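Worked example 3. Consider a protein that binds fe (ii) ion.
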Amino acid sequence: MPYYFAQGTIPPKRHIQFRKPGGGLYSEQLVSTEGFSDAYSITYHIHPPTLVTAIDESYSVAPEIAISNNAQHRSLQGFSVKPQDDFLLSRVPVLVNNDLYLSLAAPRKSMTDYFYRNASADELLFIHEGKGVLHTMYGEIPFTYGDHVVIPRGVTYRIEFETEQNRLFIVESFTPFRFPKRYVNHFGQLLEHSPLSERDIRTPQNLVTHDEKGDFKVLIKKNDLIFPYHFATHLFFVVGWDGCHYTWSFSIHDFEPITGRLHQPPPVHQTLEANNFVMCAFVPRLYDYHPLSIPAPYNHSNVDSDEVLYYVDGEFMSRKHVDRGQITLHPIGLVHGPHPGAVEKSIGKKETNELAVMVDTFKPLKLTRQAMEIEDKDYYKSWME
Ligand SMILES: [Fe+2]
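Given these inputs, the predicted complex is written out as structure tokens:
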């Protein structure tokens, strides 16, 4: 989905002899998607990327489903998820279906003694709090508050935090993330009316080649199981690569909102999509400017999508008592709308400072056991207040 990019040293042609200064050949790897039919990159390694020494016993990290058929508005206090030192252990799945898993995480420490690879899903880490660097064989992606870090499936990574207080909202998608088709021309370029442009996309930088041998553990997640693999070499020992398959990021703060004289529908807030779901960013913006406009949204029946809103910062004009890190779920089959008084209160307001990430799924979401532990049980009655 991103454009062609190259880092480090690569030979003038694909699949030809490419020799190290000492004379030996670099190992070439093709990283390809949809078989050989979609985005790919070619990487050049100091050692073969295949040197497996051992595989430990696999273990399950499958979400524990508490409610598989949800027909109720829900609200979860995301920041009630307990911080944990380890990045993988800190990840708490809350809403899941066959297209995606939504998780919350408050990891305290960097990954130091293992690498991680999700073999089943592309991952998007939304950085609500914290700062650090994502390391991959493609290079480094520094991240901070508001970043969406996109990690295609199969990419081995190691996350390093500069901070102890980190809050992440994680989307695991079982199909690749892409920009909405209406924003992309047939050359793959983002069009003039897209809220994001190529200038907002951050590509890997600082390619560091780790020529290290030893015991390097990679936790490979596949179909809800973790397979602990051991390799004889460091995993990031690339001298150069090129192609269109790599990690990348953009900031919610670079999303340029589309506004109008009348209330604009949620698709103007869209950032990304994958099969059976879309993602949006609600960012600070000027309100509608028709003299009789009502900035608060109308009541809304999402006939065939579950709406998930993850509240980041600012004040939300349509709701009362919203906390940072709160998640609301307004499912298929029910009407939701502004809280009492919110419509009148919004009239005459000029701008909003709200910041939120939305995920709309076209198939119903299930709630996990951990989601029930952080649920506000009376939320479904909150329109009666
Ligand atoms: Fe809605």
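Take a moment to read the result before moving on. The CA atoms of residues 269 and 334 lie 22 Å apart. Residues 300, 302, 307, 330, 336 surround fe (ii) ion (CB under 6 Å).
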